[in-house]
Amino acid sequence: MDPSHRQDLLLQAAKIDQQARLAAEQGDLANSARLILEAMDCERRAGGLGPQVLQLIKPRA
Questions:
Q1: Distance (Å, whole) CA 24 – CA 1
Q2: Strand, coil or helix: 41
């Protein structure tokens, strides 16, 4: 897992979120909705970079 890549995705999501807010304030709801989905995708990908639950469970010997 590369923590800097995860951080980059979260920073990108925050930047896109700001763009979505600005678009919504200007009344461009279609663009705002598209940007929100893009930001959510970045957050989802960042969350997927951590350890998976099944990798943390150790089988009993």
A1: 35
A2: helix
- The whole-angstrom separation of Cα 19 and Cα 4 is 23
**pLDDT for 32-59, tens place per residue?**
999 999 999 999 999 887 665 555 555 5
Residue type, 56: L
Measured in whole angstroms, the distance separating CA 46 from the mean position of its chain's CA atoms is: 5
> Residue written as tokens 């930001």?
39
Distance, CA of 20 to CA of 37 (rounded, Å): 10
Letter string b/e over residues 6-23, b meaning 16 or more CB atoms within 10 A of that residue's CB: beebbebbeebbeebeeb
Report yes or no: 55 and 18 within 8 Å, Cβ to Cβ.
no
Do 16 and 38 contact (CB within 8 A), yes or no?
Answer: yes
